[in-house]
Amino acid sequence: MNGQAKIIEPRRLYQQIADQIRELIESGEFLAGARLPAERELAQKLGVSRPSLREALIALEIDGSVEIRMGSGVYVSTEPVQSPIRTKSLGESPSELMQARAVLEGTTILLAASRIDTTALENLRAILDAMRKEIETGRKPLDQDRQFHTTIAEQSGNSVLARLVADLFDERHSPISAQLRVKFEDKDTWFLALQEHEAILTALENKDALLAQAAMHSHLDSSRRRWVEN
Question: What is the C-alpha separation between 206 and 212, in angstroms, rounded?
Fold first, then answer.
């Protein structure tokens, strides 16, 4: 047999759930323009968690199969769309991404806390000052958020960990994560994130590695809940 075997991409859970919902739409169980059942009811019907269901609904909105109306519900699109037979990958699962970040950055900050110097602490303080100004002016401080996490990772002294932290952070720009940001990030959620960053920095300034780790875990878990379970 000539040529290389075709690599089959693993199906993420949100893709599988989105396919199930699309099948229900195409079978006529959910009619065009109709409101889908509430999240809790639909999650029970499909036997999945609400965060995974929400990711699937975001994927369906991106391909035009449904419309998510904040405060009202999720509606089957009234416009005919050429939906794919199977939902394509739109990036890593946001909830799994945040769990992975918590594991990785929770370990990385332990190494950083034992090595971080005065210059790096001053840089982190300047980053948070800039982050506050961005929020106050109504802009989303994505650059400052990234700088904060990558600066800490670089202080670990491990270039591989630093690269992985940056790569996972940049997954926020995938289609599914970007759509979640549009819907669930606002000035209030960014101020909460800033407060959590302040707690991390205070622990680093006090050379308290375990407190810094706990603050990082708390921040990323809170971010996941704001992002996916809002």
Answer: 9
CB atoms within 10 A of CB 62: 17
- Each residue of 171-181: pLDDT tens digit? 999 999 999 88
pTM of the model: 0.85
175 to 11, 61, 135: CA distances (angstroms): 16, 11, 23
| Same domain as 142, residue 101 | yes
Going by C-alpha positions, the residue among 83, 75, 92 that lies closest to residue 23 is 83
Q: Are residues 69 and 100 in the same domain?
A: no
Does 85 score more than 80 pLDDT?
Answer: no
Whether residue 150 is found in the same domain as residue 38: no
Locate 48 and state its tokens.
């999945």
Element (H, E) at 4: none
Q: By the 8 A CB rule, do 166 and 153 touch?
A: yes
What is the CATH number for 55? 1.10.10.10
